[in-house]
Sequence to fold (236 residues):
Amino acid sequence: MRLDKLLTVTATATRSEAARAVRARRVLVNGVPATNAAMQIDPQVDAVVYCGTPVSYRAHHYIMLNKPQGYVSATEDGKDPTVLELLPQKYTALGLFPCGRLDKNTLGLMLLTDDGELAHRLLSPRRHVAKRYYFRVKFPLTAAECERFRAGLVLEDGYETKPADIALHEDMHSGVITLIEGKYHQIKRMMQALHNQITHLERISFGPLSLPADLARGEWRELTAAEEAALQAAAE
Ligand code: URA
Fold:
C-alpha cells in the first residue's frame, strides 16, 4: 500500500496534508523520515508515525456523533446540511454513512461508519438491537396510554409496531422510550396514534453505546476498541 494511501484510509491526513508532512520530514517509516509519499509500505509490518503519532491500520471507521438539530441523516442532500458535514475533511474520502436515520429535528447519538456489513446487521429487524430515546410530549401521558404504547400500536398506515418500552417521568410529559425497530418517524407516529405530539426527541443509546455526557452537541469521536467490540458483539 502507498504511504499516502495509509494516511488517508486511516483518516490521519488528507492526501495534500500527507504530501506536506512528508516534505517536512514529519512522517517516519520504521524510524526513518519518508522521502516519497508514494513509497510502498506494508501496514501490518511497517511502523508509521505521522507528526509524532503512531498510525495503526484499520479496515473500517466507527464514529459516534452527537447530532444537532437541522442536520439530515444522509450522505448528500441538495437542501440541508448532512451529518457528514460535521466531520473534518480527512474523513470525506472514506465513504462513511449514517448507520440508521434520525429525523432532521431529532438530536443525539448517531453512528457513522464505512462498514456496510456491520451496519446491515445492526439495523436488521431480526437482531432487535435496542435504541433508547429521551422524549417530551405536548400533553400528559396516562398510564393506560403507556400500556398501549408498550403493547404495540397501529399506526395511521395500518402498520402494527412491535412492543416498545416507555418509562414515564413524574411530570407525565417526558421519559425514555426503547425501540427495537426503526420505522420512518416511528416515535412521532406512535405518539400521534395516542393523539399526542413529540416536542423533543433525543437518542441516548444505540445497542451497547450510550451518548457520553462529555460529547457536546455537534461533536464526534472515533469509538474506542472496547465500544467497537461491544458493537460487533451486539450484531452477532
Ligand atoms: N422516531 C422518530 O419519530 N424520529 C426519529 O428520529 C427517531 C425515532
Observations:
- Residues 102-103, 106, 185-188, 201 surround uracil (CB under 6 Å).
